[in-house]
């Protein structure tokens, strides 16, 4: 169960610690005091999506930490499977921080974690019913989710969806293979033409680059030869000039003649000799290049024609010769696939029949499971609604066959509802009032609580649209459910607040121009005054105080009961 919640810089909450107990925990306060901020804080701690606007104005970051006590063994096992571990006493601390610029970090048992893992663990620990869940109930496409949860179809549904997705992928493959004869003939002709055109060109990898180089060599042959000859003459000299080789040799000999007189010149002499050898190597390489520089102008036409062929293929199949060859390889593979498509299609059809039979069987199993569960579920919901002051209500889970396999099987599920005797069953979305929707949702949550083992349920204003005796019954029902698990309920109704095992007051104050939200765990007198405020509004009279005391005593809360009063 959720034992403690530490909050820092979340909206108007600068710093607060919420200490919860087992049983029914109720939170009340004036409108705008910050009750919804507590839900946002819990969502933040559990890894759910929140806006960075949640960070208190002027603060660097919002931070929430949640301590869970006596974590169930099932959850501990899943936490360990994700690479984390609970404390020896079975407790688990999770925390999350989000900065004003939207960045954040998460921790599980003191170790860094991703938001997705935090969310996965959080949903094993807490089930939050917010006001938007009532709208979810009004969407028929969500009704099958509630039924499957009650029927405990998670494993069966996963098995069905695996086969269904395989079947869908197979049908997509089959559709690609299946084409009419005329289209197949056109495609085969085109592929064969493309393959023949590329293969007849007899392209070689890198050929285009080699031809470009050869073309440039032929076109610039005269300039290249002249430059080579001029450079070689500069190194070797001619009839009327000394070359760099001879001059370097002369410089070395002259310096050698005085090296004995000036020993520091010896290294310079050695460098001049090495330079001469290097110039000789350069001259030899220039001569080799000059010997190979003969270019046949008649070769230019052949090179140009070959480049024109490659250029034409480039415009169709790729920028480089390698791209053109790769295109041809893919075309050959497609040609082979289409040529054998009839055989492949037959094989896929055989596999499809097997998968379809498996999917239909699994879907039929789901249908049977749903029909059995629907009978029990609707009876339990009717009993819950009768307790919640809707004795004449009729609630029916309608299961209709779909024309084909879908992601959830072959069943369409919709909740039908009739609040009054003699009224026909009609879709819930069309006839239920706000108060009726709230009670139906509470009934569904209570029924689903029988099949899940989440220890903490949080209800945010489950009492919307109800009052009087119906509100009292909701309070009693919440207390009954809280006997087996922890309930946290935000409410505006005294009838519900009176049933609480722990009552927490949320107050908003303004100090030095800043707004603060503070939490108080109330004792008997504090609870009596808060109930009186809810009953009578701003004016708390002896009569409202007496009514509040009677409500607490009727709920089994004795006047001797004390509670810890905390102000953060």
Termini Cα gap: 22 Å
Mean pLDDT: 86
CATH topology of the domain at 2-138 and 442-519: Rossmann fold
Q: Which word captures the global form? A: elongated
Annotation, overall tally of beta strands: 17
**For the record, what is the CATH homologous superfamily label of the domain at 2-138 and 442-519?**
P-loop containing nucleotide triphosphate hydrolases
| Spatial order of the strands forming the largest sheet | 2-1-4-5-6-7
Uncertain residue ranges: 562-568
Count every helix, treating DSSP H or I runs of 4 or more residues as helices: 20
Beta strand %: 15-25%
CATH class division of the domain at 2-138 and 442-519 = Alpha Beta
Radius of gyration: 42 Å
Share of helical residues: 40-55%
Write the layout of secondary structure elements.
Blueprint: E1 2-10, E2 13-19, E3 24-29, H1 35-45, E4 61-68, H2 73-81, E5 92-99, E6 104-108, E7 111-113, H3 115-125, E8 126-129, H4 132-137, H5 143-151, H6 154-177, H7 181-201, H8 207-219, H9 221-236, E9 237-238, E10 241-242, H10 244-259, H11 266-291, H12 299-317, H13 321-339, H14 341-387, E11 394-406, E12 409-418, E13 426-427, H15 428-431, H16 434-449, E14 456-460, H17 468-481, E15 486-490, H18 494-497, E16 502-511, E17 514-521, H19 524-536, H20 542-554
Parallel strand pairs: 3-15, 3-16, 8-14, 14-15
Antiparallel strand pairs: 1-2, 1-4, 4-5, 5-6, 6-7, 9-10, 11-12, 12-13, 16-17
Helix pairs in contact: 5-14, 6-14, 7-13, 8-12, 9-11, 10-11, 12-13, 14-16, 19-20
